[in-house]
């Protein structure tokens, strides 16, 4: 009998709710993936490279052309220079990047600060590497960071802080003040950062995504993890990347080469060519803001309370003023009774703290969102 390293971990809520949605023919606004296909031209490029014979292992750190495009993107948007050969690594999804960065950094007994609610892969990655998660709650209702609480959580054992902006599940986007506060409280300490920025191009209302790598102090200690999945509607391709200074990238690649070694070759070449046109990611924010606005306009006709998401695919709503029903129970009941699946936000807390919040994914076709809103408007508590 195997002694489990994660005895308390079962099937993820995303799998549970997606299956429930399928079983009840419900509109699935639970799992965070786009409800529409990627660009035809991008698919054609993959086919072209496959037909040309680019079907064997890619270089361990990534196809050079793609690494150069990623470095150019960062330079053009944030005016920060990375050596594409030494400091950019292509991996099989941002989740792999996060795991490799944690593994490269965390040793037995090290403490890792996780801001909650948090994406569900962070704590397991820490625990599997012998680390100790230290949970710090975000402010409700806006999910901003309480920097005094972060300061109080830091000890001599703190090795790493997990950062996520734009935030999943709650859509908060970090400000320059957030970056400055993080730099101040970690100055002269050997504390590193794993920054999950997969929604970097999906920010709203004129906000600007500010990656940790844009801050001179933070850059030297940051593994910046990104993904093409959310940017180009290709979550099933599982192609991500990590930008980090050379000393950090060296250790990161030592882990990466024994996790997946390399990532899909024809897809990397296709993405490198697709990235030649910056407009394909620079104007993505408006595409998703239109969907957020449509969804929020419809939510105004429901009894839920909410503040429009600042970024990401997600909108969180509160029903605390309406009911004491547990969010997990409510999410299941709504899926069965009205045919709309969501995610209970309590699953993003280690202790399942229930603030009576649900998360909806609005990265769907407009007609699907309208159908879901019609159902939500008829729901009664």
UniProtKB/TrEMBL annotation:
Name of the protein in its database record: 2-keto-4-methylthiobutyrate aminotransferase
Family: Belongs to the class-I pyridoxal-phosphate-dependent aminotransferase family.
Annotated Gene Ontology cellular component terms: cytoplasm
Highest classification ranks of the organism: Bacteria, Pseudomonadati, Bacteroidota, Cytophagia, Cytophagales
Coiled-coil features, chain-numbered ranges: none
GO molecular function: kynurenine-oxoglutarate transaminase activity; pyridoxal phosphate binding
Domain Aminotransferase class I/classII large, residue spans: 26-376
Keyword tRNA processing belongs to the record: no
Keywords: Aminotransferase, Pyridoxal phosphate, Transferase
Cited InterPro entries: Aminotransferase_I/II_large (IPR004839), Kynurenine-oxoglutarate_AT (IPR051326), PyrdxlP-dep_Trfase (IPR015424), PyrdxlP-dep_Trfase_major (IPR015421), PyrdxlP-dep_Trfase_small (IPR015422)
Cofactor dependency: pyridoxal 5'-phosphate
Domain of life from the UniProt record: Bacteria
């Amino acid at each position: 009998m195997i002694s489990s390293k994660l005895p308390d971990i079962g099937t993820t809520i995303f799998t549970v709710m997606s299956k429930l949605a399928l079983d009840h023919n419900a509109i699935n606004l639970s799992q965070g993936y786009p409800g529409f296909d990627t660009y035809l031209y991008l698919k054609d490029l993959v086919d072209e490279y496959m037909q040309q014979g680019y079907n064997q292992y890619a270089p361990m750190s990534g196809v050079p052309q793609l690494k150069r495009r990623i470095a150019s993107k960062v330079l053009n948007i944030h005016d920060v220079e990375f050596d594409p050969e030494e400091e950019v690594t292509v991996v099989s999804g941002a989740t792999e990047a996060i795991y490799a960065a944690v593994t490269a950094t965390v040793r037995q007994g090290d403490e890792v600060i996780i801001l909650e609610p948090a994406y569900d892969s962070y704590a397991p990655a820490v625990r599997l590497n012998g680390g100790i998660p230290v949970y710090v709650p975000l402010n409700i209702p806006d999910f901003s960071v309480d920097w005094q609480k972060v300061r109080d959580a830091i000890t001599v054992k703190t090795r790493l802080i997990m950062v996520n902006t734009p935030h999943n599940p709650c859509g908060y986007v970090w400000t320059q003040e957030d970056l400055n506060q993080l730099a101040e409280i970690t100055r002269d300490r050997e504390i590193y950062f794993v920054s999950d920025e997969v929604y970097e191009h999906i920010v709203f209302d004129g906000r600007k995504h500010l990656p940790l790598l844009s801050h001179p102090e933070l850059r030297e200690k940051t593994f910046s993890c990104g993904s093409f999945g959310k940017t180009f509607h290709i979550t099933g391709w599982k192609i991500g990347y990590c930008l980090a200074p050379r000393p950090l990238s060296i250790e990161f690649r030592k882990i990466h080469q024994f996790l997946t070694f390399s990532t899909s070759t024809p897809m990397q070449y296709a993405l490198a060519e697709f990235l030649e046109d910056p407009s394909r990611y620079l104007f993505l924010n408006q595409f998703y803001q239109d969907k957020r606005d449509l969804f929020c306009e419809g939510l105004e006709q429901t009894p839920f309370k909410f503040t429009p998401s600042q970024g990401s695919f997600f909108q969180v709503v509160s029903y605390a003023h309406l009911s004491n029903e547990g969010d997990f129970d409510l999410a299941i009941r709504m899926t069965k009774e009205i045919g709309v699946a969501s995610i209970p936000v309590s699953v993003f807390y280690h202790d399942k703290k229930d603030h009576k919040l649900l998360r909806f994914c609005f990265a769907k076709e407009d007609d699907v969102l309208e159908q879901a809103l019609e159902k939500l408007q008829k729901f009664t508590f």
